[in-house]
Amino acid sequence: MTDETSVKQIEAFAHPAAQAALGVEGGTTGWKGELLHIHIAPAASYEMEELTEATCVAGRGIEGDRYYLGTGTYSPRPDVREITLIEQEALDALARNDPPLQEGPVVLAPEEHRRNLTVRGVPLNHLVGRRFRVGEVVLRGGRLNFPCKYLENLLDRPLFLPLYNRSGLNCGIETSGTIRPGDVIELLD
Amino acid sequence: MSDRLIMKLRVVGARLTTPDVLMLDLQHPKRPALPAWTAGAHVDVMVAGGVRQYSLWGDPEDRGRYRIAVKREAGGRGGSKWIHDHAREGSELHVSAPRNHFGLDGKGGRYVLVAGGIGVTPILAMARVLAAGEADFTVHYCARNAAQAPLLDELRAVCGDRLTTWFSQEGRRLDVHTLLARAAGAELYACGPNSLTAALETAIAAQGFPADLYHREHFAALSDADFVPDSFEVVITSSGRKLHVPADRSLLEVLRDNHFVRGSSCEIGVCGSCECGYVSGDVIHRDAVLGVKARASRLMPCVSRARGSLTLDL
């Protein structure tokens, strides 16, 4: 399953969600965020592994990740999954049970949420149809991520509702390059 | 509870307990604690070309390592042979978080555990927990002889005089009828080859031993050679979508073709990975996992089918 033809990605700005957002005024500007963690997994259901640096390949994903290799749970379905991000702020809110949607706090460690990049100070929900950079790599926001029962099953914890509307952002990679924790994240346009 | 996280674990111990059974101790290379488990649980081990299930026989209180025992199955599909050939101290095995279809009922009371050969693994974990809880239990262990009884020393250490061994080469064979008569009112747990569980089940039916007190772990799916699959129709509750399952394809395959993502592992109805809910339909259950109660609303799409039309809770 590593031949490139098995990897079906939708170009981020070709996704209907990005199409609808492109050129529409709005979204916060002037922010500056930081990359906290990079995680990849070799195949569906495999534990995420933290990297100190990662190679991002335009149109493909992060080298070694399941969506780069075509071995992910959702790889058979064409989608925007080259690289996925989630806000540390959302994880912090879950940990303080805010809003109180479940029995109590849900503590999701960085290796548990299954997004590639954990970021701080980045308004992900404002970035559909927008270009932004992580260090030297340029990303395109394709669509909002949506929580799935798969993660709930895997971790055996209630996550679907708590993650609703703050589940992160699925992006395409426009410019290849190497990223590292600590990299600055900024809006381009 | 279908999908389980897969971890790259390190083999920290590998030695033979009998000439054809390899004991493996597994640790997480980066974390001190592995996912918790309860007696009777098993893990999936990724092997060349597939997945195999192995019960955990260690102490559930010991979160630092998983202990499995792998019998080299000469006539098998090659998974156990691959493990025997590849697992060495320091090597890596890809192992899922544990799952339990064979849990000890916490009602207390009396327990009778029956193990046959490599079926000793979940029974040993159960005996350990029962002994620690000072429960009233006995263990019956069937094997050809002591030298070919995996984990015999470990089981003896845990059970002491609560263990009875039945070694056929010594002319001692377990009499299931006597066993059942003495087990009246006790919870009965059995794990072993089909010949052992079949004998037990025949006796259970003949003697009217209560079916709800009997629990078994399956090594292999029930093969019903006479089963002739028919085509059937499926309705997806959430969308009203209709799917056709031809006679020569599994429900799981058809769901996958239509982008319903399901985890799966064994695809022979024993592991429980692909479990799915249904709302209505005349289901032909062919798995070896689901209990009678669960079967009213759950099915295993890898092997189970339906007559006519089936409405899936998807």
Automatic annotation (TrEMBL), chain A:
One of its GO terms (molecular function) is molybdenum ion binding. PROSITE patterns: MOSC (PS51340). It comes from the Bacteria. Residues 49-188 form the MOSC domain. Pfam families: MOSC. This is MOSC domain-containing protein. It comes from Ancylobacter pratisalsi.
Automatic annotation (TrEMBL), chain B:
One of its GO terms (molecular function) is oxidoreductase activity. InterPro entries: 2Fe-2S_ferredoxin-like_sf, 2Fe-2S_ferredoxin-type, 2Fe2S_fd_BS, Beta-grasp_dom_sf, DmmA-like_N, FAD-bd_FR_type, FNR_nucleotide-bd, MRET. The keyword Metal-binding applies. Its cofactor is FMN. It holds the Pfam family Fer2. The keyword Hydrolase does not apply. Residues 4-105 form the FAD-binding FR-type domain. Residues 232-314 form the 2Fe-2S ferredoxin-type domain. It comes from the Bacteria. Gene3D superfamilies: 3.10.20.30, Nucleotide-binding domain of ferredoxin-NADP reductase (FNR) module (3.40.50.80), Translation factors (2.40.30.10). Keywords: 2Fe-2S, Flavoprotein, FMN, Iron, Iron-sulfur, Metal-binding, Oxidoreductase. This is Oxidoreductase. It comes from Ancylobacter pratisalsi.
